[in-house]
Amino acid sequence: MLQLLVSFGPLYTTALILGCLMGLFVCNRLYVDYRIRKVGGVRASVLATNPFTGLQFLMRAAYWQTRDKLDYYYRSLFNWASPECPNCVEIAIFGRARFLMTQEPEHIKTILTGKFREYGKGERFHEIWSPFLGDSIFTTDGQQWSDSRALIRPMFVKDRVRDLEIFDRWTMTLIEKLPASGQTVDMMDLFYRMTLDVTTDFLLGGSVNSLNNPKHEFVAAFQEVQRIQMLLTILAPLRSIIPTYRYKRGIRILERFVSPFIARTLSLSPSELDKLSQSDNKDLTFLHQIARTTRDPKIIRDQLMAVLIAGRDTTAATLSWTVYELARQPRVWARLRADVLNTVGRHNPPTYEDLKGLTFLTHTLNETLRMYPAVPYNLRAALQDTTLPGREGQPDIGVLKGDIVVYSTLAMQRRRDLYPEEWATAKMEEKGRGLAVDEEVGGLADPGVFCPERWERWTPKAWTYVPFNGGPRICVGQNFAMTEMAFTLVRLLQKYERLEYRGDWHGQFHKAEIVGAPGHGVPVAFFEAENGSAV
Ligand code: HEM
Questions:
Q1: Which of 82, 108, 329, 456 is most buried, with most CB under 10 Å away?
Q2: CA 203 to ligand 1: nearest atom
Q3: Could you tell me which of 121, 111, 104 has the C-alpha nearest to residue 411?
Q4: Bridge-partner residues for 510, per DSSP?
Q5: How far is CA 420 from the centre of its chain?
Q6: Where are its TM segments located (predicted)?
Q7: Contact present, 188 and 223 (Cβ < 8 Å)
Q8: DSSP code string of 33-54
Q9: What is the mean pLDDT of residues 142-164?
Q10: Does the Cβ of 468 fall within 6 Å of ligand 1?
Q11: Which pLDDT band, with edges at 50, 70 and 90, does 56 fall under?
């Protein structure tokens, strides 16, 4: 064969190879079109269907990600969409697998509930994430996922979350670390350390204690592993060229920390574990709970890592954005503080009931999660040939087995057309997020402005607000997270009368890794009430 090609000469050989590639491409395209028709669908707005046009989108995603502008890039994709399908675009690169990027609530609803069994994490996601999260709740589908969920859920029932001792311990440690009134501190750094300490304490019964020991090797390793994991996910088709030495070394460091806890728990007999699990036993940890169901150290390790990644950065980033926005809006801080002093008082730790009764505080956290959903991008693979709903009056979109649907809650929750008309135009003259929002009245705020009061007048339409996802895979730690964040804010509100931002408002940006956090941290100064007065 090779001899035959050589006898043709280089020109003919090149033409032949190009011809074959072209033939393959045309056949592939026809075959995809055929299967899409077979499921009764059409294509989404097509941006690329081959490596020549498709690779540039991938490279641009990597380019904007390294410049921390992935949100800008993602939203810009829809500028090329057709009017028939304005919120879902298709990019195909190699073979038959396609990427569908969406910011459409009906698509998110379909993936997460209506056709839950037809979409999942998929084999590729499992392969890319398994060195870190193994076969955990985060990386599996079907029965394996359902077993993991059953294993984990009991630790998040209301009666467990009601125990606020861990939150109190670590919030008070955080407050001890704050400098004197008026001095600048990066709250984001402290929140990340605090939530690591809370989560490891809750999971293992022993904390990394990073608030007291910021240079603990676990801290840097956890961050590095997540950074590289995000790159491996975004650049999935090119992942073999990404160096993974630091990734693997980071995972080993994390394992070195959790392994002794696992070994100690497994040295307990089943009856000792059962005794620990008696209700109200404060020594019971997540680890004990899982060890009652499985004694396989690998399964335990995988689930621990999954809950650690799910629970730590999400709450830290949300707290960071909340404090950033509260520093911008003294009126919100003052109202929250008055509520807290009336309900909880100046010194007592809040009870679970106190926290649930602080409605404006809940609205404030909801508002943060509306503007800065902690998981800004997510994906699902089609597990079989299926569809996504088309626009009203338009056919459905065909999705083929192996296609990846990327959905962005960040892009969707910032879509102005999903908000009532009068709100979208109310503050148009400020061109989006102005600094002067104090004169905001009655919750009639532009959707681009942080305004907790809007929640007193407005309920988002179904599936237009899903920071915790929805459907069977809804965040299992939602109540834990809301309680932890509210507790922390109450403790800060009790002590400090006001706060001031000490960073550059205009320089701040949304840094999206697995979780989206303020790119410049949150440098602020807190001020205690003069003479210890309450308000
Ligand atoms: C502001 C805080 C949080 C936000 C915004 C958040 C958001 C989410 C989202 C969007 C998912 C869906 C991921 C997916 O299916 O691809 C998820 C899943 C999950 N979250 Fe959270 N989360 C938060 C805090 C927590 C906390 C504190 C914990 C536990 C300590 C936790 C545990 C989990 C677990 C185990 C899952 C997997 C559920 C499953 O696949 O069945 N999360 N979370």
A1: 108
A2: 30
A3: 104
A4: 518
A5: 26
A6: 12-31
A7: no
A8: HHHHHHTT-B--EEEESSHHHH
A9: 86
A10: yes
A11: confident
Residue pLDDT, tens place only, 272-303: 888 887 766 777 888 998 998 899 999 999 99
ipTM above 0.85, yes or no: yes
Q: Is 475 in the pocket of ligand 1 (CB under 6 A)?
A: yes
- Cα first-last separation, the chain: 87
Asked if residue 489 lies in contact with residue 495, where contact means CB atoms within 8 angstroms, the answer is no
Residues belonging to the binding site for heme are: 475
- Bridge partner list, 89: 45, 101
pLDDT tens-digit map of 321-367: 999 999 999 999 999 999 999 999 999 999 999 999 999 999 999 99
Say how far apart CA 443 and CA 439 lie, in whole Å.
10
Task: Report the binding-site residues.
Answer: 475
Of 198, 305, 475, best ligand 1 pocket probe by most atoms within 8 Å of the beta carbon? 475
- pLDDT value at position 64? 81
In DSSP notation, 373-432 reads -SS-EEEEEESSSEEEPPSTTSPPEEE-TT-EEEEEHHHHHT-GGGS-HHHHHHTGGG-S
Does ligand 1 lie within 6 Å of residue 315's CB atom? yes
Q: Per DSSP, what are the bridge partners of residue 186?
A: 523
Nearest to 400 by CA among 383, 416, 413: 383
**Atom of ligand 1 at shortest distance to CA of 199?**
30
H or E, element range at 516: strand 516-518
DSSP letter at 326 equals H
| Of 285, 218, 286, residue with least CA distance to 255 | 218
